[in-house]
Each structure stands twice: as structure tokens, then as C-alpha cells.
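Contributing new records

If you add data, match the layout below exactly. Sequence lines come first and carry their own label; structure lines follow with theirs. Keep one chain per record. Anything else will be rejected by the validation script.
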Amino acid sequence: MPDSLWTALALLLILEGLLPFAAPRVWREGFRHLTELSDGQLRFVGMMSVSVGLLALFLLS
């Protein structure tokens, strides 16, 4: 189990780093747009991200 957790973390870091590496201007604009969202909108984005992640985990397990 701990090996799987570290593998998942490593894959997360790789995926998170792809866009800033490949297209920094696009990433910066997207991030700037996120900082302009209201708290409620950010919570919704977070909730949807967690929901999609849980659904994917459920379907893949």
C-alpha cells in the first residue's frame, strides 16, 4: 500500500508539471483565471475534482 501511495504521488507531480513545462503562458493565464474566481466557484471546482477522482478510483479498483 505505501508503495502505491508514493507511485500515485509521483504520477500526480508528473501530470501537474506537464502543462507549465509545455505551455507556461497557457498555464499562467489559466492559473490567473482561477485566482479571480469567487470562493464558492473555487469550492465547486474542488468538489468536482474530488468527485471525478473518487469516481475514477472506484471504476479502476
